[in-house]
Amino acid sequence: MADPPGATAAAPPGVTPEHRSCPGTFARAWAKAVSGTSYLPMTQAQLEALLQRLTERLAAALVSEPFDLRAGHRVGAELVAAHVASAEGLGRTVEVIQLRLVRDLGLVTDDVEDRMARLLAAVATGYARALRDRTLDEQESIRRAALTARAQAERALRASEARFRHQATHDPLTDLPNRTLFTERLGAAINSPGRGAERLGVCFLDLDRFKVVNDSHGHQVGDALLVTVADRLRRALQGHLVARLGGDEFVVLVERTGGTDDVLAVAEAALAAVREPAVVDGHELAVSASIGIVERQVAGTSPGDLMRAADSTLHWAKAAGGARWAVYDADRDRRELARYALSAAIPAALDRGEFYLDYQPLTSLRDGRVVGAEALVRWRHPELGILRPDSFIGLAEETGLIVPLGGWVLAEACREAESWATADGAPPFVSVNLAVRQVHRPGLVQQVRGLLRHTGLPPERLQLEITESTMMNTAEEPVRALRVLADLGVRIAIDDFGTGYCNLAYLRDLPVTELKVAGQFVAGLRAPETRADERILASLVSLAHALDLTVTAEGVETAGQAERLRAIGCDAGQGWHFGRPEPAERILDRLR
């Protein structure tokens, strides 16, 4: 039943009316005591409201029957939940409750002091338990957060490693596997245990004339073409590893083959995929490729040997005209390696003095006098014995070593020829072949002048032989150099004349003094009934004489050939009939 108006509320059991105080006063004192002891995520008013509610709960618990300590536990827990969670905050809480709660609220019981002590202990216990639980929860949260962060970091690391791995093993332009990944896969295919009896193949592909695309349309179009080719190869050769090694070079790994035919099928598919015209940035481009093929048993090979063989075979396909494949041939490879080793040994052989000259006489068909001698280089190889020019001159021309080698031949020939003399006082000239690179090399005039000055050989006793194709294709500057030499008195001869089907009228503008007719025309004079070659030679001689040129026939091997050449007016002959190539000393004996 409600209290009548104006009536005073009854005091709780154990609270004397004359001492009753408002819980809010105590709560404000409590809030003042704990403020600043820890961070509190609430306003002062909110803190006072919380502590007033806890004050009422403590007051009720202190005078309740039966006495229940659980209220103290809950108060301690709520303090921690409200973030009054420091040792200083607990100490001030205990102090305020102990000194002021009973007095301020007028709480009176027979055993109030005992109850107060036990209640404070319960508050402290509840506070400690709650703080422990919160600490454990926070530690668990931290642990879980750490595990989550670690898992996320590991996932990010794996993703990053995968990205880096892809970038490191794939071509950035075409996204095909690059040399690194191809080398790894090739090594695994060859070196993995138990795979020695298996067979594998490699197709080494290179685009034909790709440089023309870059030069004509720019590198942007060239790169787009490479992307197109890569996509075609990827689609056409599914199931095989297709990689870009760099530039316009691609390679295909064919594992577990049943023989060469399996790799040939892959190569044919690759060529067919590439040869389709490609439209790139509005340009229709004709594309073709060359492929070097190697197929062999895994046992006994290595990645390096396999790729070197494939590279060599690719060059064979290129040399054959491109747009085709070539299959590795061990015998051919050995021959080419031997050629390479021979060409690589030329510089050291020059330094060691392994080269020497033999001379073949050029004999007048009118009186049999030696009018000149052609210098022919020989190589006294320490392992292979005496090598003739056809064994190494071609290699020297391919590698550019013909320039130092030809320079040595020219200098040695001038040095030795200076000492030649005859009884009638008309010493022969020395004839030296010049390679294309020598003719086109700047400084030819200065080189020849220096040699003549150094050796004392008169200019008219030096003849420079140049092939017909070289003379017909030389640019203005080389021809000008030859004219200067001719003006000095040096003889200029066209060697192997007739093999290039030259227009004789063109010789009017060239500084030529002699034609050396190719031996294939002279060979036809061995049969008395053959007249075609004789008529050809007669026409050449007649036209050459009309241009004031002398004619020497090469390859004269019989007296019959010499007689027929003499009859048609040929000036001189060279060949075994007049003498084989021999050292300078023998030439001197012949002259004496």
- Gap from first CA to last CA: 165 Å
Quickly give the structural class. alpha/beta
Number of helices: 22
What would you call the shape? rod-shaped
Q: Please tally the β strands and state the result.
A: 16
The oligomeric state is: single chain
Give a quick rundown of the structure.
With about 600 residues, this protein is α/β, with parallel strands linked by helices. The chain contains 22 helices and 16 strands.
What does this protein structure show overall?
With 592 residues, the protein is an alpha/beta fold. The chain folds into three domains: 17-139, Orthogonal Bundle (Globin-like), CATH 1.10.490; 179-328, Alpha-Beta Plaits, CATH 3.30.70.270; 340-591, EAL domain (TIM Barrel). It is built from 22 helices and 16 strands. It has helices spanning 23-34, 44-63, 70-81, 87-105, 112-169, 179-191, 210-217, 219-236, 260-275, 303-319, 330-344, 346-352, 393-399, 402-417, 436-440, 444-455, 468-473, 476-488, 519-523, 532-546, 559-567, 584-591, and strands at 199-207, 241-246, 249-255, 278-280, 283-285, 289-297, 325-327, 355-364, 370-381, 385-387, 429-433, 462-467, 491-497, 514-517, 550-554, 572-574. It has an eight-stranded mixed β-barrel, surrounded by six helices. A five-stranded mixed beta sheet has the order 2-3-1-6-7, sandwiched between helices. A two-stranded antiparallel sheet has the order 4-5. The protein is rod-shaped. The model is unreliable at 1-12 and 14-20 (pLDDT under 50).
